[in-house]
Amino acid sequence: MLLKLSDVVSGYTDMDIIRGVSLEVHKGEIVTIIGPNGSGKSTLMKTIFGLVRLRSGKIEFDGVDISRLRTDKIVRRGMAYVPQERNVFPSLTVMENLEMGAFIRKDKFREGLEEVLTIFPELKDKTGQKVGTMSGGEQKMVAIGRALVLKPTLLLLDEPSSGLSPKLIDNLFKKLVSINELGTSLMIVEQNAKKSLTVSHRGYVLEMGMKRFEGEGKSLLTNEEVKALYLGG
Amino acid sequence: MNFANFAHGDFLALGAYLTFVFSAILGVHFIPASAIAVVITAFIAVCCDYAIWKPMREKSAGSLTLIIISIGLALFLRNLIIFLWGPDIKRYDLPVKRGIELGSVVITQNQIFVIMVAVICMFLVHYLLKRTTIGKAMRALSDNIDLAKASGIDVDRVIRYTWAIGMALAAVGGILYGLITNINPNMGWFMLLPMFAAVILGGIGSPYGAMVGGVVIGLAQELSTAILPTEYKQAVAFFILIVVLFIRPRGILGS
Ligand SMILES: Nc1ncnc2c1ncn2[C@@H]1O[C@H](COP(=O)(O)OP(=O)(O)OP(=O)(O)O)[C@@H](O)[C@H]1O
Ligand SMILES: [Mg+2]
Which one of B128, B129, B143 would you mutate to disrupt binding with A, by most A Cβ within 10 Å of its Cβ? Predict the structure, then answer.
């Protein structure tokens, strides 16, 4: 088991946003989390990554309890995270953005850079460009590339397809599948539930900070209740 | 850490006073005395981070709170300087050297030294920000501190480096200022207004803007003395500021 959450409770103010969630990601899997707006999907990811404090419960990563570990320690253990918004350094160049992804292991940057540029060959000729001046699709590649530089064993992606055109979305999911085939497990939060569940091994439905459904990607897609409630009929 | 540091000027004064202590009182040669002063000032800045700014970050204090704290720190430093070394004007007591005549103007050797050091510092800052990992991390932090954290960057460590380098540069500024005029407990306070004007003029948050702003404000102030009484120097700085902000509201290099 790569990631295991047991009865996780967390939140920002007095109110609990995540109210007792248990889920897991196995080695090599793509897992998608869907749920209505405000159900706590982003908060759950931030909690896993040590950016929102855990109130109770337990998070284990690669057999180690990371419940109260600082984010940079979690990164060192091989997890990476692409936030939903503000996920690049706009005044830095593409190269510098990728370099920041390898800040804690500068020795691994060269190797990682090559891999990122193989996955996103579109960035090859633009390494010197300021990311703030790039298109939304290009910025998304930089954001994911930054998280991939250290070849994480688990990559958390918060709504990677948001703001992209249908064509770019297809392209993105192809890339995500190939990233997964290179040995990185993925946990994806998506509004684009159909697309994401189609490429996923398993999925969870989150509602009001609690787990509503879980199952294989394809079986969630065909589950009548899930279809009616979350996949728009 | 997004706030105007009102204690900046008093770190500048601290650098000058420490140089005065090592060179004029303890008899160390001026250059090593300055180096020691710069290192001590940077060290004090890092201590301030541990004692004041880090706890404030952990409480997620707003920028108004931070500004008020920095004013408190400024007053503390100024009065510490008065307490330790008195309120009157001091000089480094360096031997006076002959100036160099260039046509109708005379440039002192100290002035040439000041210009050289300032230019070298500018290049060093450029190198730091563009070429070193810690410098790039500083820019990353000022872009998006949450993403810096999520990239595994030890944000506290980068901020400590930023304080150390920033206040070391302030100390250099103070030492140089003392070299061409004199040192006194209020020098930091009086330098603060043109410094803020230069930063705003160049574009807040842009180090290169601050360099350009500094040159523009400095030149305008000095050139104005040819046609206006010197008392109007400060007014000239702010007149330029207003004119430029009318044309470019985010400053010369602001984005
Ligand atoms: N920084 C914050 N401080 C306080 N409350 C927050 C904060 N961020 C989110 N919340 C609240 O937490 C709840 C869950 O938000 P979250 O962003 O996790 O939802 P989400 O499922 O990701 O929604 P979306 O699909 O819109 O991205 C919301 O009610 C939101 O208002
Ligand atoms: Mg969200």
Answer: B143
Does the pLDDT value for residue B1 go beyond 70? no
Q: How far apart are the two ends of chain B, measured CA to CA in Å?
A: 19
Q: B149 alpha carbon to ligand 1 midpoint, in Å?
A: 19
- Determine whether the interchain pair B151/A86 forms a contact, defined as Cβ–Cβ distance below 8 Å: no
- The predicted-structure confidence for B61-89, as pLDDT tens digits, reads as follows 999 999 999 999 999 999 999 999 999 99
DSSP letter for B94, please.
P
Exposed / middle / buried, residue B245 (Cβ in 10 Å: 0-12, 13-18, 19+) = middle
A15, A17, A49, best to mutate for ligand 1 pocket (most atoms within 8 Å of CB) = A17
Choice from A13, A15, A43, A211 to test ligand 1 binding pocket (greatest atom count within 8 A of CB): A43
Q: Which of A225, A204, A166 is nearest to A233 (CA)?
A: A225
Chain A residue closest to B158 (CA)? A103
Q: With contacts defined as CB-CB under 8 Å, which chain A residues touch B154?
A: 72
Interface check for B255 against chain A (CB to CB < 8 A): the answer is yes
Look at B150 and A49 and tell me if their CB atoms are within 8 Å.
yes
| Cα–Cα distance for residue pair B149/B132, rounded to 1 Å | 19
Residue pair A28/A180 in contact (Cβ under 8 Å)? The answer is yes
Nearest CA in chain A to B147: A87
CATH dotted code for A1-78+153-168+185-233: 3.40.50.300
Q: Please tell me the predicted confidence (pLDDT) of residue A208.
A: 95
The residue among B74, B93, B60 whose CA lies nearest residue B11 is B74
Q: What is the mean pLDDT of residues B31-38?
A: 97
For residue A82, give the amino acid letter. V
pLDDT tens readout for residues B197-206? 999 999 888 8
B15 forms bridges with which residues in the sheet? none
CA of A43 to the centre of ligand 1 (A): 6
B-chain residues near A100 (CB < 8 A):
136-137, 140, 148, 151, 153
Residue B199 CB neighbours (<10 A): 21
- Taking 50 as the pLDDT cut, the residues of chain A under it are none
What pLDDT is stored for residue B174 in this prediction? 97
What residues contact B83, with CB distance under 8 A and at least 6 apart? none
- Residues A205, A186: Cα–Cα separation, whole Å: 16
The ranges assigned to domains in chain A are 1-78+153-168+185-233, 86-151
What number does the ligand 1 atom closest to the CA of A44 have? 18
Question: Among all ligands shown, which has an atom nearest to the Cα of A38?
Answer: 1
Among A143-152, B163-172, B240-249, the minimum mean pLDDT is found in B240-249
Strands A64-65 and A54-61: antiparallel
